[in-house]
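4.2 Preliminary Data

To establish feasibility before requesting continued support, the project team ran the inverse folding procedure on a target of 86 residues. The structure was first converted into the token representation described in Section 3, and no sequence information of any kind was made available to the design step. The complete token record follows.
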């Protein structure tokens, strides 16, 4: 007789994240275990996570960027020139 497959422990916390890009005051990577800790880490270390800052409606859409126009390029070019001679 076959044994039924054992199911994974559903009570275990599935929200277990180590943030590679955020380091605490000792230089270690920040680890969060729930949304409350993630929100507190955002405030403490000054970053924004996709998990907390995305709408459910457009979660799968790529981030939108404004089109770059010729006037944007001219402003960028001449602002650098002005800074050099200032």
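Position-by-position output of the design step:
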């Amino acid at each position: 007789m076959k044994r039924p497959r054992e199911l994974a422990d559903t009570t275990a916390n599935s929200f277990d994240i180590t943030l590679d890009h955020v380091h605490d005051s000792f230089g270690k990577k920040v680890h969060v275990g729930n949304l409350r800790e993630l929100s507190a880490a955002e405030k403490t270390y000054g970053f924004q996570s996709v998990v907390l800052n995305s709408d459910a409606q457009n979660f799968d859409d790529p981030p939108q960027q404004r089109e770059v126009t010729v006037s944007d390029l001219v402003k960028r070019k001449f602002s650098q020139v002005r800074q050099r001679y200032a």
